[in-house]
Amino acid sequence: MKKIFFTMIILACNIVFSQTVIPEKYSKIKFVYEQKSNFFIENDKVYADTLLLQFQYPKLKFSKVISPLDSTKIVGFIEIKNFNYEDKKILESTLYHTTNTIEGTYDLKKNKTKLFFKRGNKALTEIFKKYFGGNYNTFLFNIIVDYNSKQIDTNYPRKNYSESFDSQLKKINFINGNNCLGTYTFQTNKGYYTNTVTLNKQYNNKITPGTIFSNTNFGVSEIVSLFDTTTLISVIYE
In this predicted structure, what is the pLDDT of residue 20? Predict the structure, then answer.
């Protein structure tokens, strides 16, 4: 499969969140990310970047239009009535797996972060009821990032596994010398992907939704992949 490049130019590097002043003394950093699908549904139409529509639904034709969410962008849309059963199941799964609230706590003394993932939100519930004929199961899991042992432990309700930092570290390719904006490429069993990452120099690199980078000391304010966007929405020091 060919490499898929999905880059987005983001002008802002330093974004102000819920707490802008870092105290001199603190023992924990608490932060929250929102992960949302890059698909969105409005007026019985499924909108997305044209590259995403081509990748996910290569046999379906789409029309181009100004994005209902951002008038500066051109996106594609497919009327949901043109989706067959299999197409709908793919969309249902994609929306479900890319809608998460991520609550993180970094403990300075333990040098360890615990990330709690909660799948779904109110908007997704409404979409499932309207277009998929039901609801979804609430899914919770956590990831523990241990910076001392350089180990990442993922704990699902019925399955746990561990990975080393070496196997998961990502290197950012910075854009035009901007040390707050870049891309990183990685491989899965489906091929190669490239994500865009925006950093915030106000925060240290322990503020992350789970991706560990080898060549930055800044926190992650946003990660944009082909399928979803993960955005930092709050940071609190205790």
Answer: 56
User: Residue 39 corresponds to which tokens in the numbers above?
Assistant: 């698909």
CB within 8 Å of 117: residues ≥ 6 apart = 100, 101, 102, 139, 140, 141, 142, 143
Cα distance between residue 131 and residue 68, in whole Å: 19
Model confidence pLDDT, tens digit, residues 206-227: 999 999 999 999 999 999 999 9
Q: Which residues of 197-227 are buried (b: 16+ CB within 10 A; e: fewer)?
A: bbbbebbebbbbbbebbeebebbbbbbbbbb
CB 162 within 8 A of CB 152: yes
**The token pair that represents 5 in the structure block:** 């490049």
Q: pLDDT value at position 86? A: 97
CA atoms within 13 Å, Cβ hemisphere of 12: 8
Give the predicted TM-score (pTM) of the model: 0.89
CA 22, CA 36: separation in Å to the nearest integer?
28
* Alpha-carbon span 172 to 8, nearest angstrom: 14
Report angle CA 168, 174, 179 to the nearest 5 degrees.
100
Using alpha carbons, select from 13, 59, 20, 28 the residue that is nearest to residue 181.
13
Q: Give the span between the Cα atoms of 92 and 103, in whole angstroms.
A: 24
